[in-house]
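Re: [ENG-882] Designed sequences occasionally contain unexpected residues at chain ends

Forwarding the minimal case from QA. Structure tokens:
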């Protein structure tokens, strides 16, 4: 099982949208996928059609009191399961803030779970902050995918993410974690700014920037309010086409090809 954290400390960049929709298309391609919602706002949980208050989060597991194998629940999509989030997760910042071993609180249970997990990929939807939950996710992941909105402030956020990842490596908890890719999101092809940001990211991060660019798309914005991924809500939309293409590129990078 490959553990992939989708992370950016800046909010509103398409992180959750990418986590759930990449997960949906990977599942459709026959991959066994588990999404871990690590954001107390539980947006990924709701997008996948589940009520956060009716399910158990990974909160107790991070405190050393729960069994992670009991947490995954089925979604409406075959091959796609979810470890939901709820408001309890917000307590992690207080409970583990002073714990000198906090970076291992997610790393350890996920590494143990790898040996028995019936999944090909675990996608972690991280909260938009630089707090305990995000740093724990980075310390637990094999790879990081960073969604970057096509605006200049996002370029600053990208630099901060790279710096944070270097700090995580330096702790020794997860020295092998790498940035798997940069996904450019919310692109508006009518503006010069979008083109300039895309060019800047590709100049700086050419080897890891995805060719696929996710456009601004009304259907992508509407789908979560219906508790659906774009695959379920508007499979013929431009947003769906982009995430299908992203899935194909992701699988090619990992040595596979999207099924026809």
């Amino acid at each position: 099982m490959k553990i992939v954290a989708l992370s950016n400390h800046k909010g509103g960049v398409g992180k959750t949208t990418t986590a759930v929709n990449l997960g949906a298309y990977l599942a459709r391609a026959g991959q066994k996928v588990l999404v871990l919602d690590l954001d107390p706002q539980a947006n990924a949980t709701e997008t996948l059609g589940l009520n956060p208050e009716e399910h158990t989060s990974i909160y107790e597991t991070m405190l050393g009191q729960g069994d992670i194998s009991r947490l995954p629940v089925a979604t409406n999509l075959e091959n796609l399961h979810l470890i939901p989030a709820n408001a309890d997760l917000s307590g992690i910042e207080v409970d583990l803030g002073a714990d000198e071993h906090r970076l291992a609180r997610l790393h350890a249970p996920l590494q143990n779970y790898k040996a028995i997990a019936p999944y090909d990929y675990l996608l972690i939807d991280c909260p938009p902050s630089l707090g305990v939950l995000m740093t724990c996710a980075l310390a637990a992941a094999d790879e990081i995918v960073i969604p970057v909105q096509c605006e200049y402030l996002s370029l600053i956020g990208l630099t901060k993410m790279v710096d944070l990842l270097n700090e995580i490596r330096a702790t020794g908890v997860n020295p092998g974690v790498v940035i798997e890719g940069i996904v450019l999101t919310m692109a508006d092809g009518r503006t010069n700014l979008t083109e300039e940001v895309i060019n800047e990211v590709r100049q700086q991060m050419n080897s890891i920037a995805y060719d696929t660019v996710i456009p601004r798309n009304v259907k992508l914005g509407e789908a979560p309010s219906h508790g659906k991924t774009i695959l379920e809500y508007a499979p013929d939309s431009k947003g769906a086409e982009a995430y299908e293409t992203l899935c194909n590129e992701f699988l090619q990078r990992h040595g596979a090809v999207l099924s026809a």
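QA comment: On inspection the terminal residues look reasonable. The domain at 2-253 is CATH 3.40.50.300 (Rossmann fold). Proposing we downgrade this to a documentation issue.
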